[in-house]
Design brief:
about 140 residues; mainly alpha
């Protein structure tokens, strides 16, 4: 009885690992296809692929960072400001938390958000974020 129970646990663990591997292969393939659609200026298709990936991979950290970056860029390219802006805001907050406000990667995320604010016709928010730079928060978010 002990052996069969142990074998069942091993089989169950291997099955979970196989499913996880298959999910991540599908996610990776969908990511590659989404990037290809983006490069071909097929932004709506890219958005759909990146959104679908985010339904399969849970979390809001490193495990979804690449897909959230891709989705933000695809939404921006498609002119979907209402979707792009919150994504870029999340990405900036995540980057600042991860590497600090003065890191070049955080600065890049800040520049991306400033660009999107401007493109979306929100120059005041763009100016506030741009003026705040890496050392200060915009006055609208200070408490």
């Amino acid at each position: 009885m002990g052996r069969s129970h142990s074998a069942l646990r091993t089989t169950s663990r291997v099955s979970r690992e196989n499913v996880r591997t298959q999910v991540y292969s599908v996610v990776g393939a969908r990511r590659v296809l989404g990037v290809a659609c983006y490069r071909a200026c097929r932004y709506a298709e890219a958005v759909a692929l990146f959104e679908r990936n985010l339904t399969y991979v849970e979390g809001s950290g490193a495990e979804t960072y690449e897909d959230r970056c891709n989705l933000a860029a695809a939404c921006e390219a498609a002119g979907r400001w209402d979707q792009a802006i919150p994504l870029y805001e999340e990405l900036l907050a995540y980057r600042e938390q991860l590497v600090g406000r003065n890191d070049p990667f955080a600065q890049r995320a800040r520049d991306d958000l400033v660009r999107v604010y401007r493109s979306a016709g929100r120059p005041d928010e763009a100016a506030a974020l741009s003026e705040a730079g890496p050392h200060r928060r915009p006055s609208s978010t200070q408490e």
